[in-house]
Amino acid sequence: MPIAKIEVCRYRPPEQVAAMIDAVYQAQREALKVPTDDKQIRYIEHKPEHCPVPPGKTENYTFVEFLLFPGRSLEAKRRLYQGIVQRFGLMGITPSDILIVLHEPPLENWGIRGLPASEVDLGFNLHV
Q1: pLDDT (0 to 100) of residue 102
Q2: Pairing state of beta strands 3-8 and 98-103?
């Protein structure tokens, strides 16, 4: 159940936004083996004057942040990073303009159906 957020500092047309969301979705499906109906991805576009680009980055600077259940292997995380960078690269976003951060709160810090996720059958394997 990853929850992903893509943040950018410039306008992109709707078809590019959809392509970026799909790129993140496909990368997490392949790398993290999440269920096909698990697509919680938000796209946030900041006005350039509200989003200073870090030094050495271009207007294509893209920040991707994930909240996800703990348990994925380092190799799965590598596949996620590489999958996103590869797909974004097809859209003209260079690897140096991409920052990806994962947050993995413990299962007891996720409330699902009124219970801690540690007490719920999630229906998929976290250890990939």
Answers
A1: 98
A2: unpaired
